[in-house]
């Protein structure tokens, strides 16, 4: 996982509550054997006018001009601003894979679904929670100002809005540490590499048959 | 200090590190892989530029997607018609070649359902930790091993670190005491257990199955019981090591030999719960009370004895149960109070990681021998759990018995257990199935699954409806479990 560094990015507003994982990435795309490449099908039903099938060349598909991510002013957005209970529904890890593959690094909302919350952090996406009033205000600001950007500073747990306002947010210490250090579960476990090797060696001594290969 | 349970012992033998937050790293001895849950794990490794920690711990086979007719199978991977299935199978092949992992591919005689193959190869040994990206991995616990089903992210984690990040579970013991009646098999035992404790009864626990009736089971029977621990809510099921375990393991390709064998056996003898071990929960069943079981609903806990009847939702203890029973009866097309023996079948499936080992096929063949399947049965299929099971069955002439009776004799794989390949139920069709899940749509859209033992499935095929194997005229079906 990449280290999460301070950055300033374009904010795209998705004005919708209870965005579920099926909306984030519809189930027909789950049969893929990959965890990359889901970005073109992110929000597939909202984004395109036709019905999405796996394996299509999405550049040829008719875009829904009304969908926020299709608007020129939000191209290259890295921060998604949305409404409450984002990521509800199934436990599919494909949802954060799709967001990440599209280019989102941060999602800002009043609340997130539980499993999605875990899955997003595991995949390097920062989820920021603000109260409903702040979110309302941010929606107004973003829509009023083309090219609205936000500076996300995880280290200091704050964002600086386009107007220069500083908004502080809460984040679990452990998750913050993992994002800043770029540690996924595997990276974290590998910090104990020596302990694992030591264990493995004594395990092999004690019970060599567990390591036996067929002749 | 009180003694340790079998689970405590296995846990302690593999604990690499206990973290302050309650999670722990446990070392994994055996990692089994199949084509459905592994591709993203390999891709994750590649993206992060990581290598598998240990190659020799991994053993892969294709099972979920493979077709089971001889015609398709004789063409190797190109016999797989569904493009998505084909890609999954090929991807596993490619990944195993790229990383140097042992794989039993589609036409390898050792190929089969991952939970049949591991034990058959001796790749599952007592005292091991075993994981696989599949919820029925608890099967391997029958050998006094600690076996977990894991998700794709965890598959990647195990590949990269040889450890599983997990939390210790609570200890539960399910005791089945006494002698099983004739015609009552391991499948009936585990279905009865699930019927008693429910599909959430084991949630958060590692279950140890024990008691004289469990001890009397063969290894095949023990695997059947542990296989369905997950249907009782437990990620882990296990049985203590005894002579039956050790006899089964001798002389298998991965089993130790010579002096190492002696040392291993001495060590394995300790893989039992101490007499003074304390369990957080103990449930006891009387073997004499268990009759051949049939599931009538859409959850494995919706099960009853063959002499019973479909329950009346109005008699349910509370409203939630009432609603789920009503819904289940509607989906299953059954009437309240209908006798189980009045349920007519359309298809018969003998197979799956629960019941596709040699003993299972023998039990079914005993019932089928010299009989014909009923005219009303559209399809009756026997799908051996592995290429080696198939070969042994053929050596014993079981294939002939099945074919003469009107069954189709197929190539090994998961097949209609989850209907990822072409073997499926049609909407509304009732199937007597030796698999483990009767969820809505599991064996095909609108399909109606009844979980039973192999002998009961064979008997139902012949009668066209459920019958009590114990009532069959003097054949040796009733001695099936003694084989
Ligand atoms: S036989 Fe069925 S339950 Fe067993 S591994 Fe295959 S699909 Fe899963």
Automatic annotation (TrEMBL), chain A:
The lineage of its organism: Bacteria, Pseudomonadati, Pseudomonadota, Gammaproteobacteria, Oceanospirillales. It is an enzyme of class 4 (lyase). Its EC number is 4.2.1.33. GO terms for molecular function: 3-isopropylmalate dehydratase activity. Keywords: Amino-acid biosynthesis, Branched-chain amino acid biosynthesis, Leucine biosynthesis, Lyase. Residues 1-132 form the Aconitase A/isopropylmalate dehydratase small subunit swivel domain. It catalyses: (2R,3S)-3-isopropylmalate = (2S)-2-isopropylmalate. Catalyzes the isomerization between 2-isopropylmalate and 3-isopropylmalate, via the formation of 2-isopropylmaleate. Belongs to the LeuD family. LeuD type 1 subfamily. This is 3-isopropylmalate dehydratase small subunit. It comes from Vreelandella subterranea. The gene is leuD. GO terms for cellular component: 3-isopropylmalate dehydratase complex. Pathway: Amino-acid biosynthesis; L-leucine biosynthesis; L-leucine from 3-methyl-2-oxobutanoate: step 2/4. The keyword Cytoplasm does not apply. InterPro entries: 3-IsopropMal_deHydase_ssu, Aconitase/3IPM_dehydase_swvl, AconitaseA/IPMdHydase_ssu_swvl, IPMI_Swivel, LeuD. SUPFAM superfamilies: LeuD/IlvD-like. The keyword Lyase applies. GO terms for biological process: L-leucine biosynthetic process. Heterodimer of LeuC and LeuD. Coiled coil: none annotated.
TrEMBL record, chain B:
It catalyses: (2R,3S)-3-isopropylmalate = (2S)-2-isopropylmalate. InterPro entries: 3-IsopropMal_deHydase_lsu, Acnase/IPM_dHydase_lsu_aba_1/3, Acoase/IPM_deHydtase_lsu_aba, Aconitase_4Fe-4S_BS, Aconitase_4Fe-4S_dom, IPM_dehydratase_rel_enz, IPMI_cat. GO terms for biological process: L-leucine biosynthetic process. Transmembrane segments: none annotated. One of its GO terms (molecular function) is 3-isopropylmalate dehydratase activity. It comes from the Bacteria. Belongs to the aconitase/IPM isomerase family. LeuC type 1 subfamily. PANTHER family: 3-ISOPROPYLMALATE DEHYDRATASE, HOMOACONITASE, MITOCHONDRIAL-RELATED. This is 3-isopropylmalate dehydratase large subunit.
């Amino acid at each position: 996982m990449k280290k999460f560094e301070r950055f300033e990015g374009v904010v795209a507003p998705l004005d919708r509550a209870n965005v579920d994982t099926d909306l984030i990435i519809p189930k027909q795309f789950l049969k893929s054997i990959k965890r990359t490449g889901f970005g073109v099908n992110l929000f597939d039903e909202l984004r395109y006018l036709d019905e999405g099938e796996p394996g299509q060349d999405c550049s040829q598909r008719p875009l829904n001009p009304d969908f926020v991510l299709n608007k020129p002013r939000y191209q290259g957005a890295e921060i998604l601003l949305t409404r409450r209970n984002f990521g509800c529904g199934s436990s599919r890890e494909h949802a954060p894979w799709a967001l990440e593959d599209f280019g989102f690094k941060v999602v800002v909302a009043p609340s997130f679904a539980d499993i999605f919350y875990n899955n997003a952090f595991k995949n390097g996406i920062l989820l920021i929670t603000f109260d409903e009033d702040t979110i309302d205000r941010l929606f107004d600001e973003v829509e009023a100002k083309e090219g609205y950007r936000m500076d996300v500073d995880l280290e200091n747990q704050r964002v600086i809005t386009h107007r220069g306002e500083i908004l502080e947010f809460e984040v679990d210490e452990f998750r913050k540490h993992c994002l800043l250090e770029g540690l996924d579960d595997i990276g974290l476990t590998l910090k104990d590499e020596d302990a694992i090797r030591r264990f493995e060696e004594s395990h092999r001594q004690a019970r060599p048959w567990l390591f036996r290969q067929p002749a | 200090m009180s003694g340790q349970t079998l689970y405590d012992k296995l846990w302690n033998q593999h604990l690499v590190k206990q973290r302050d937050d309650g999670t722990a790293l446990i070392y994994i001895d055996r990692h089994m892989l199949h084509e459905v849950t592994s591709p993203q794990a390999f891709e994750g490794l590649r993206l992060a530029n990581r290598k598998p920690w240990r190659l020799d711990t991994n053993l892969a086979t294709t099972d979920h997607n493979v077709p089971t007719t001889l015609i398709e199978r004789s063409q190797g991977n190109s016999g797989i018609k569904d493009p998505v299935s084909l890609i999954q199978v090929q991807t596993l092949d490619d990944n195993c070649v790229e990383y140097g992992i042992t794989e039993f591919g589609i036409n390898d005689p050792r190929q089969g359902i991952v939970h049949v193959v591991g034990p058959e190869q001796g790749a599952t040994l007592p005292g091991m930790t075993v994981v696989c990206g599949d919820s029925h991995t608890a099967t391997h616990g029958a050998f006094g091993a600690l076996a977990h089903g894991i998700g794709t992210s965890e598959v990647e984690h195990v590949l990269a670190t040889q450890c599983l990040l997990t939390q210790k579970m609570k200890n539960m013991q399910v005791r089945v005491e006494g002698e099983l009646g004739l015609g009552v098999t391991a499948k009936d035992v585990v279905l009865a257990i699930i019927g008693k404790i429910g599909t959430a009864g084991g949630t958060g626990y590692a279950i140890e199955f024990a008691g004289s009736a469990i001890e009397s089971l063969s290894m095949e029977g023990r695997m059947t019981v542990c296989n369905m621990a997950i249907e009782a809510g437990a990620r882990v099921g296990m049985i203590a090591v005894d002579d039956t375990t050790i006899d089964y393991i001798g002389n298998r390709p991965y089993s130790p030999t010579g002096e190492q064998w002696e040392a291993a056996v001495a060590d394995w003898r300790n893989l039992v719960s101490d007499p003074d071990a304390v369990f957080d929960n103990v449930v006891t069943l009387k073997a004499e009370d268990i009759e051949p079981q049939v599931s009538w609903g859409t959850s494995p806990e919706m099960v009853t004895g063959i002499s019973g009847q479909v329950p009346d939702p109005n008699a349910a203890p509370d409203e939630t149960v009432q609603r789920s029973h009503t819904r289940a009866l509607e989906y299953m097309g059954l009437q309240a109070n209908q006798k189980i023996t009045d349920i007519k079948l359309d298809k018969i499936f003998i197979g799956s990681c629960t019941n596709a080992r040699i003993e299972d096929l023998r039990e079914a063949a005993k019932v089928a021998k010299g009989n014909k399947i009923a005219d009303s049965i559209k399809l009756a299929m026997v799908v051996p759990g592995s290429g080696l099971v198939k070969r042994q069955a053929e050596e014993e002439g079981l294939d002939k018995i099945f074919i003469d009776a009107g069954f189709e004799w197929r190539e090994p794989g998961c097949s209609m257990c989850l209907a990822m390949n072409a073997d499926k139920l049609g909407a509304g069709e009732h199937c007597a199935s030796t698999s483990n899940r009767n969820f809505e749509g599991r064996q095909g859209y609108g399909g109606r699954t009844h979980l039973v033992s192999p002998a009961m499935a064979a008997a139902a095929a012949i009668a066209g409806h459920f019958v009590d194997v114990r009532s069959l005229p003097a054949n040796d079906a009733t001695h099936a479990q003694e084989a």
